[in-house]
User: Which sequence fits this backbone?
């Protein structure tokens, strides 16, 4: 029998997930879980800024011409808007069909103090702030603070300007940034050797602290969110992969397994980005040019699972208070969920803030959101995996529309 450390990476991570659940339940809260998980998460976060900058610059330079850049960018943004829209509509369908608000306990009279502190003063201005963060006053400070939108804007502009340089200078820039990108890929491969250990620590910590009581507390609401996420992942996305991309969805699921398991355990699309890029490039066979352009952009602006979750929560809160939202108001929810999911990762307490913005815009009470905090941590893990999977599908579909063959046909 083959030793576990010789298994494929996705099998090692899956085994680590199972062991983490058992360890969390048997051992209970233990500082060692947190230490191991945080060590792995820090290693991934360490790679994010140089990986995003070098990948986007290399990707833009590899496109060749401003015309080709515009074509690729247009296809990418159309895909992002389309899939996020589909995700929100799927969430809207399930939350209206199952009406989870009618099953939940009465909402609390006052806001939880921790939640109140997170959403205090939040409003429509947070949407405008997203656009301001696209043009940071100090790119070094933006990198230090992890403001991905600013880094992406700078990297796109930098790469585009390199295309207009004289041949000699252009060649020098291309060699330098390609070298940086290759080094970052090598560092990612090194970190990923320890992924099963890191995943074990992250998941064991969550299980030890929460057990399975989270699911029992709001079972119907949790079921609605999970059904909607599963429908988007296993119905909507495979159809798009097959019809628009012309690839085998089953092969893509297999190729993306390490990234999906990492996304589930870290609850962070940005932290999972190094793994996502490796899977799409090496396992799905998408070119470095497309991967380097589409995925860093998607990790920040393409949030299918988040947008779906926001929509479900807002309708759920309305149901809790017996408020019947009209068709026009539900359309407003869809539009606001689309807008707030774009760049939402750059806002502290991302989903909670986005949800509070939508509730305030519709005049719905914030108090009802206190209930979802019970299950938010577990559902965050699930919706992050959906976010990452949609990004990967986008890279494959855009590559196919650009004439690439990939290894999934």
Assistant:
């Amino acid at each position: 029998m083959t030793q576990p450390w010789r298994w494929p990476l996705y099998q090692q991570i899956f085994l680590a997930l199972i062991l983490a659940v058992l360890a969390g339940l048997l051992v209970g809260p233990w500082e060692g879980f947190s230490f191991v998980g945080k060590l792995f998460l820090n290693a991934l976060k360490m790679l994010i800024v140089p990986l995003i900058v070098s990948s986007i610059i290399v990707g833009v330079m590899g496109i060749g011409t401003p015309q080709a850049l515009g074509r690729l960018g247009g296809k990418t943004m159309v895909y992002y808007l389309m899939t996020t829209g589909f995700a929100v509509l799927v969430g809207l369908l399930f939350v209206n069909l199952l009406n989870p608000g009618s099953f939940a306990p009465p909402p609390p009279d006052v806001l939880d103090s921790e939640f109140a502190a997170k959403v205090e003063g939040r409003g429509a201005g947070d949407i405008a702030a997203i656009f301001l963060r696209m043009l940071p006053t100090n790119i070094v400070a933006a990198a230090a603070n992890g403001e991905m939108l600013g880094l992406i804007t700078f990297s796109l502009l930098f790469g585009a300007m390199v295309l207009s340089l004289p041949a000699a200078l252009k060649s020098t820039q291309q060699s330098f940034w390609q070298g940086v990108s290759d080094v970052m890929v090598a560092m990612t491969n090194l970190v990923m050797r320890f992924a099963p250990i890191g995943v074990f620590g992250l998941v064991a910590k969550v299980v030890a602290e929460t057990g399975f009581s989270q699911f029992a507390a709001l079972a119907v609401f949790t079921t609605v969110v999970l059904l909607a996420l599963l429908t988007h992942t296993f119905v909507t996305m495979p159809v798009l992969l097959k019809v628009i991309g012309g690839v085998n969805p089953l092969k893509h699921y297999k190729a993306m397994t390490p990234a999906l398991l990492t996304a589930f355990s870290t609850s962070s699309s940005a932290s999972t980005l190094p793994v996502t890029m490796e899977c799409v490039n090496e396992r799905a066979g998408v070119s470095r040019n497309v991967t380097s352009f589409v995925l860093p952009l998607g990790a920040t602006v393409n949030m299918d699972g988040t947008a779906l979750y926001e929509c479900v929560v807002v309708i759920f809160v309305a149901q809790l208070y017996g408020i019947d939202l009209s068709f026009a108001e539900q359309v407003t929810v869809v539009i606001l969920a689309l807008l707030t999911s774009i760049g939402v990762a750059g806002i502290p307490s991302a989903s909670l803030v986005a949800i509070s913005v939508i509730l305030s815009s519709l005049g719905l009470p914030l108090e009802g959101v206190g209930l979802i905090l019970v299950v938010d941590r577990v559902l965050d893990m699930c919706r992050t995996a959906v976010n990452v999977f949609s990004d990967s599908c986008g890279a494959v579909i855009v590559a196919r529309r650009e004439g690439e063959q990939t290894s999934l046909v």
User: Anything to note?
Assistant: The chain has a mean pLDDT of 80.
